[in-house]
Design a protein that fits this description.
Helix content of chain A: 25-40%
Structural class of chain A: alpha/beta
Strand order of the largest sheet of chain B: 1-2
Number of domains of chain B: 1
Distance between the termini of chain A: 37 Å
CATH architecture of chain B: Orthogonal Bundle
Oligomer: heterodimer
Largest sheet of chain A: 6 strands, mixed
Order of helices and strands of chain A: EEEHEEHEHHHHEHEHEEHHH
CATH superfamily of the largest domain in chain A: P-loop containing nucleotide triphosphate hydrolases
Bound molecules: adenosine-5'-triphosphate, magnesium ion
Number of domains of chain A: 2
Largest interface: A-B, 30 and 18 residues
Order of helices and strands of chain B: EHHHHHHHHHHHHHHHE
């Protein structure tokens, strides 16, 4: 069935100067699926996200979202149809309480079209949403200054900004990286919940073990090229993947 | 002898961090509202006690204050540095002048010129909205220069002579209290918007984090357009007001003073709030007036003053006063 394909990326390329950051990449994603994107540093993971979500202009290639060609769309319009993304480098309003960071997306036309947008007080909605992603209301965490939040909360804040848009799909850029083991462990159920709620996910990650608790398939990038695609087993056993990760000795990835 | 220790309290932090506390006593309410009340009272009473010459200076100060707030709003809350003050004034002034000369009474020509002028200014600045920082500033600075030259060269709109014989305000009182009224409304409305309305947070994002705004399904350009419209409307009003204060419009409405003084006022007053640029204008314009006797040497004093603030007192007067006001020190026994 092709009509449940939510995202189709077709031969997308991008060079910066002489560097081929993304080289002729294609893949498709069905509604409700979770796709992992992995690859060494600088292999083009963030760039492919930027190309899909319109933040960087493509040199060539097409992107279809729910059957519609969104290749030339502006970022806000892509977000407006429910394709949200997080940023690897998060920059919240440091001097404002966490919940105020959720107000701009709640102010967006997309949120206002939905039932949630009509609830009235956006601050209250923002605090409810933050509670859903693990900001303990009783400990008044949603009221803490965003600049004083530990990294784990910032990552959740970034996810929450996406959830405020009631997205159908979220592309996450390294939600786990930089977090301690225990923070990652507590983050996994949240991602599983998003999946249960029917949100299609793309997760760019370095932590493969945690990634594959959630994602059942992944693509591997190296120097902008897709070198492998498939289930976790297929990827772990792919010689090209082992090669890309320093001849298979990268314990960071394969432990 | 008991030992004494200096203790510093920060009332601002206490009030901000807990709104219930703020309302718990009359004293705290006064503390919060005090500065605003003093400002309002001062503005309302001053016209009654000064000489006619200084009444006129006050009206001009009001014009510059509006322009300074307009500049400060756009620069500090939306991140667009606009030197278009002179353009807004010129467009608003000429529009109101042309309308008035065609028979539209000033009670209508001023609001029409304000809104229509703001639409025109916004449309003309639209192509430069993706530009940032100094590029936007330069383009917005070129428009008034260009417009002035164009009028001189083509002879349209009265050419170098301008359009004389326009309706004037019935009296200086009407003019002054109108300026004060508009100034207070603008201050109240803008500070509510940037501090308490949700769109204020969006503007802040436009300044600090464009990417997050775009990713939040918000059209960045559209919010820049809104902000430029608001800020240019303040300028076009100032221009229309000047047209009927003088009863004349001319090329001097495109004078670069209208673009530059707001920058100086923001430097002197402080950029932390909307009241900084206001305070800066309230100090600089009368100061410059009273230095008129020195002729062109005035510019030198001006420059020295600016250098002093830029180099030695970067926080600006208002932020300094605010800090002193919010923190008070007292001796406690230990
Ligand atoms: N805006 C840009 N200008 C120039 N080069 C860029 C730009 N963005 C990315 N690149 C280059 O493109 C390549 C891919 O970068 P990208 O950020 O997509 O990698 P990544 O896989 O996300 O890496 P990481 O794991 O470190 O986040 C790198 O060589 C990078 O230097
Ligand atoms: Mg990256």
């Amino acid at each position: 069935m092709s009509d449940d394909i939510i995202l189709k990326v077709e031969n997308v390329s991008k060079s910066f100067g002489g560097v081929k950051a993304v080289d002729n990449i294609s893949f498709t994603l069905r509604r409700g699926e979770v796709l992992g994107i992995i690859g060494p540093n600088g292999s083009g993971k963030t760039t492919i996200i930027n190309l899909i979500t319109g933040f960087v202009e493509k040199d060539s290639g097409k992107v279809y979202y729910k059957g519609e060609d969104i290749s030339e769309w502006q970022p806000h319009k892509i977000a407006d149809v429910g394709l949200a993304r997080t940023f690897q480098a998060m920059r919240p309003y440091p001097t404002l309480p966490a919940y105020k960071n959720i107000i701009p997306p709640l102010y967006s036309p997309r949120a206002r079209r939905s039932a949630r947008g009509k609830l009235g007080d956006r601050s209250a909605v923002a605090i409810d949403l933050l509670e859903e992603v693990g900001f303990e209301r009783d400990a008044r965490v949603p009221y803490k200054l965003a600049g004083a939040l530990p990294l784990g909360y910032l990552k959740r804040l970034e996810l929450c900004r996406c959830l405020a848009l009631m997205p159908e799909m979220i592309i996450c850029d390294e939600v786990f990286s930089g977090l301690s083991m225990s923070e990652i462990v507590s983050m996994v159920p949240l991602m599983e919940k998003l999946q249960r709620d029917g949100i299609t996910l793309i997760m760019v990650e370095h932590r493969l073990r945690e990634l594959f608790k959630i994602a059942k398939k992944a693509i591997v990038l190296n120097f902008g090229e897709k070198i492998a695609e498939g289930s976790p087993d297929e990827i772990f056993n792919d010689p090209k993947v082992k090669e890309a990760y320093f001849g298979g000795e990268d314990s960071y990835v394969f432990k | 002898m008991p030992e004494l220790r200096k203790e510093r309290l920060d009332r601002g932090v206490k009030v901000r961090s807990d709104s219930i506390y703020a309302l718990s006593s009359m004293k705290e309410i006064l503390y919060l509202l005090g500065p605003g009340l003093v400002l309002i009272l001062l503005l309302l009473v001053l016209p009654l006690v000064v000489s006619p010459y200084w009444q006129r200076v006050m009206a001009i100060t009001g014009v510059y204050a509006l322009l300074s707030i307009s500049f400060g709003f756009l620069a500090n809350y939306v991140g667009l540095v606009s030197l278009g003050g002179a353009f807004y004034v010129g467009v608003g002034g000429y529009l109101s002048g042309l309308l008035n000369a065609a028979g539209v009474p000033l009670i209508l020509s001023i609001p029409i010129a304000t809104l229509l002028g703001a639409v025109i200014c916004t449309l003309l600045l639209l192509p430069c909205l993706p530009l940032r920082g100094v590029y936007f500033a330069i383009i917005s600075f070129i428009y008034p220069l260009f417009a002035g030259r164009l009028i001189a060269a083509t002879g349209y709109f009265g050419g170098t002579d301008g359009i004389p014989g326009l309706d004037r305000f019935p009296s200086i009182w009407v003019a002054l209290y109108m300026a004060i009224f508009i100034l207070l409304i603008v201050l109240y409305g803008l500070s509510r918007m940037v501090n308490y309305e949700d769109v204020g947070l969006v503007f802040r994002g436009v300044k600090d984090n464009e990417l997050a705004i775009k990713a939040s399904a918000l059209n960045l350009t559209w919010y820049k357009v809104q902000a430029v419209f608001i800020s240019s409307a303040m300028g076009t009003f100032a221009g229309a007001y000047l047209a009927h204060l003088y009863g004349w419009v001319g090329m001097s409405l495109f004078a670069i003073d209208f673009s530059i003084l707001p920058v100086a006022a923001t430097v002197v007053g402080g950029s932390g709030t909307l009241y900084g640029p206001l305070l800066g204008a309230l100090i600089l314009v009368p100061a410059s007036e009273s230095m008129r006797a020195f002729g062109t040497l005035r510019i030198v004093f001006y420059a020295v003053l600016l250098v002093f603030f830029v180099v030695f007192w970067t926080e600006g007067i208002l932020d300094f006063l605010k800090r002193k006001y919010e923190q008070f020190e007292h001796w406690v026994r230990i």
